[in-house]
Write a structure and sequence with these properties.
I/LWEQ domain, 14 helices, 82% helix, mainly alpha
């Protein structure tokens, strides 16, 4: 475990990494399902709060494993077994999400015992990996041990939040503090202690793969929800329109994501890795929240939702808008380029999303409104396909 070559040619994701990612299908699915249930029940604030904290924990665990594997993936039996332990941790975390959401809804005490247990299992397994790297890669021992100490100490804090008899706001406040420490650890290790040999193109590919997994939640959620709708009420125009809208939204969001030339920018400017790595947490959250919004729309069609048509449309429109805005922010930060074309596309996208809400407010059927909303990502797709790709090529050329 001396560190992989950061300029290794043809570096791609391994089968083990792909298997590891499958556990996050479960975690994202549970997080989205719990959010949609709470939205449909009218518990909007509690649902969003639970979703934000749970998706942060999910994403942070994935990010730490991914950057470590990019630098030190030996794919030997020790690495594989430690990865299996981390996969178990992800599944335990997912099992703890329903109780976590419910406790925030009731507002007395945060029931995060199972969630924290799963998270700590993942993180302690990673500490073992970092200890191995510290021993076998003396040149980068300082960076590896920085990860070891910060991750290990913070886990004590996470466990402490389970036993503190505090209110929901106090516990979540402690989570914010611990999260900031978790985020600061890699910044210290990579900038002050020598860093690790992560591979820019491998990292970009891994993030793209997780984006696809998150988008898959929209597809799976739409199909599962529509199965219930069709089974209970039979096929209807609402069900057909929701199926088309969900598929079109997912496809459009996928297309928009891969318009950002992340690999080239990371390869030329490794110092931008923190922006790339951490900004993806809300990006993934917005993708999964869109899937939860589509679940909520299916509940509305079944007449099992406390939300009205406008609120249901907003449950999809808001995360879609956040997602598209974040992709443009990511482009701007990675390429250090503000493009007038992008500003125009953002404005046109906002017009489509606002028009969707207005249509719902004046009585247009909810499913038809979501079909209009599915046009929003296509605005950017059309802009990039017609002229934007030339702007991208020019921006990349300036970086390299």
């Amino acid at each position: 475990m001396r560190g992989r070559d950061p300029h290794e040619r043809h570096r791609v994701a391994t089968p083990l990494e792909l298997l590891f990612d499958l556990t996050f299908v479960v975690a994202f699915g549970v997080a989205a399902s719990e959010l949609s249930h709470m939205l449909a029940a009218g518990h909007v604030g509690a649902g969003i709060t639970g979703f934000v904290f749970s998706t942060f924990a999910i994403c942070l665990a994935w990010i730490n494993f991914t950057w470590f594997a990019s630098a030190y993936d030996t794919d030997d039996w020790v690495f594989r077994l430690m990865t299996m332990v981390e996969m178990v941790g992800v599944l335990v975390l997912a099992l703890g999400l329903p109780a976590f959401y419910a406790s925030i809804e009731h507002g007395h005490h945060v029931d995060n015992a199972v969630l924290v247990a799963g998270y700590v299992v993942m993180r302690i397994a990673l500490v073992g990996q970092w200890l191995r790297a510290a021993k076998q890669d003396p040149a980068r021992r300082a960076a590896a041990m920085t990860y070891v100490w910060i991750v290990a100490v913070v886990q004590v804090g996470w466990v402490g939040t389970v036993f503190l008899p505090t209110s929901v706001p106090v516990t979540l406040g402690a989570w914010v503090l611990l999260a900031l420490i978790e985020l600061g650890g890699p910044m210290i290790a990579e900038t002050k202690c020598g860093g690790t040999p992560w591979h820019a193109h491998h990292i970009a590919e891994r993030y793209g793969l997780l984006a696809i997994i998150a988008l898959g939640e929209g597809v799976v959620g739409t199909v599962a929800s529509l199965s219930a709708v069709v089974g209970e009420h039979g096929w209807s125009w609402d069900a057909v329109l929701l199926a088309i809208a969900g598929t079109a939204l997912t496809f459009g969001m996928w297309w928009v994501y891969f318009m950002v030339p992340s690999a080239d920018a990371l390869h030329a400017h490794r110092e931008r890795g923190f922006w790339f790595g951490y900004l993806h947490m809300p990006v993934y959250g917005a993708i999964v929240a869109t899937g939860a919004g589509l679940h909520t729309a299916a509940y509305y069609i079944q007449h099992h939702s406390a939300l009205g048509s406008v609120a249901t449309v907003l449950s999809v429109v808001i995360p879609v808008g956040i997602y598209i805005a974040l992709v443009y922010v990511l482009y701007t930060l990675m390429l250090r380029s503000v493009d007038a074309l992008h500003l125009l596309l953002v404005v046109l996208t906002a017009v489509v999303l606002i028009a969707t809400v207005v249509l719902a407010a004046v009585g247009v059927p909810m499913a038809l409104c979501l079909l209009v909303a599915s046009v929003a990502p296509m605005v950017s797709v059309a802009g990039f396909e017609i002229i934007g790709h030339r702007h991208v090529a020019a921006a990349v050329a300036r970086q390299t």
